Amino acid sequence: MLAQELVASHWFDPEATFALMAVIALAALGTVAVFTVSLIAYLRRKTKPYLLITTALGLLVLRSVVGFLTVYDVLPMHLHHLLEHTFDFAIAVLILYAAWLTGSE
Q: Are the C-beta atoms of 7 and 14 separated by less than 8 Å?
């Protein structure tokens, strides 16, 4: 079954479904790879800044999941925006706190 047949959303052009899914898939692969590297780094170092960065990267992976769920109309657009902006804020806070902790060492 084609992705276009699966999508019932009206918020984007169905002809752009393949491109949108490709972008989300590439983002998911990239963030999973970076998250995996950060998790390995955290397991080696076991410091709070590494944990914070790993958590922030884990939230980036979840953003891709939210994107897929929205494209497949499992997640409504208003909830998509609420989650994405909440994740953005949390990621910024986690990275700034990690930088602040590192600067104080």
A: yes
Give the DSSP letter of residue 15: G
Whole-angstrom distance, CA of residue 31 vs CA of residue 37? 10
Per-residue pLDDT reduced to its tens digit, 55-83:
999 999 999 999 889 888 888 888 999 99
Q: Is the full-model pTM beyond 0.90?
A: no
Tokens of 82: 């609420």
Region of residue 13 (left: phi > 0; alpha: psi -120 to 50; beta: else): beta
Q: How far apart are CA 105 and CA 88, in angstroms?
A: 26
